[in-house]
């Protein structure tokens, strides 16, 4: 009999579907004072399984990741115990300072990596041009992923 931990884990397909449903990811960097620095960010998951965000180049989280690229990511949902679902990812953060990559990330974050209509892409592109030069991409490459879906317990705890 599998452990209860194994019984509630997402499959790879369930993980990807869950992440496409979600809009906000909490990213945690290691602050210079030793305290974790959690920040909610919009994101998308790329085809290689990396988590992509964009933020302002001078933000504290960028400074933290340049000093220490280790990150913890969290997405969670559910109100009652039987509804709790979530993912924790231990990852390495790559700070990418490239305006074209920022624009691409912003489009994919808005569309969750799905194909955008030409009109939607053009509208997004115009809005992004204002902030893209001040931004970088945060690419989180997973080392380890933990997940849970308490609905798989069928009400038996």
CATH class: Mainly Beta
| Estimated helix fraction | 25-40%
How many structural units, i.e. domains? 1
Tell me the fraction of residues in β-strands, as a range.
Answer: 35-45%
Helix- and strand-based class?
Answer: alpha+beta
With strands numbered from the N-terminus, the spatial order across the biggest sheet is: 2-1-5-6-7-4-3
**CA-atom Rg in angstroms:** 17 Å
How many strands, which pairing sense, and closed or not: the largest β-sheet?
A: 7 strands, antiparallel
Average pLDDT metric: 89
- What is the CATH architecture assignment? Roll
As residue ranges, the low-confidence spans are none
Report the principal-axis shape.
globular
Element order: H for helix, E for strand? HHEEEEHEEHHE
Describe the protein's architecture and organization.
It is a single chain. This protein is of the alpha+beta class and 157 residues long. The chain has helices at residues 4-8, 12-21, 60-67, 99-111, 118-128; strands at residues 24-30, 36-42, 44-45, 51-56, 70-77, 85-96, 135-149. Helix 4 crosses helix 5.
Structure at a glance:
Helix content is about 30%, strand content about 35%. It is an alpha+beta fold. The protein has a 7-stranded antiparallel sheet with strand order 2-1-5-6-7-4-3.
List keywords for this structure.
7-stranded antiparallel sheet, 7 strands, alpha+beta, Pnp Oxidase, Chain A
Layout of helices and strands:
Blueprint lengths: L3 H5 L3 H10 L2 E7 L5 E7 L1 E2 L5 E6 L3 H8 L2 E8 L7 E12 L2 H13 L6 H11 L6 E15 L8
Antiparallel strand pairs: 1-2, 1-5, 3-4, 4-7, 5-6, 6-7
